[in-house]
C-alpha cells in the first residue's frame, strides 16, 4: 500500500512511526508521518507528536479526505535532525464535500527529550 505522504510503501515509511516502533528522526519525517496520520485517522499519533505546550485537546479533523502532500521548503534541522529547531513549509491537499482545497503552512518543530515535536504553524494564504 502506498503511503499517504507519497514517499513509498506505508509499511516501511510512516506505519512504523504510527505503531510506535520508531520515532521520526527529523522534522521532515515527522511532517510526513503527521500528514499520513491525519489521512489514516491516527489521531493518537497526531496528539503524541504535538508539543504539549501548544497542542489542542482534540487535534483530529473529521470529514476530510487528504489527497496529497508537497514539501516546499525546509530550514534549520529539518532534513538532518541536527539541532533543536526546524521548519517545514508544505502544501497539504484535501477534499471536503467534493471540493478540492489546499492547506499551505510553515510549520515549526522543536526537539524535546531528544524527540521531534510539532510546535505550531503559520497558515499562508495563496
Automatic annotation (TrEMBL):
SUPFAM superfamilies: NTF2-like (SSF54427)
Domain of life the protein comes from: Bacteria
Domain YchJ-like middle NTF2-like: 26-121
Pfam family, one: YchJ_M-like
Protein's name in the database: SEC-C motif-containing protein
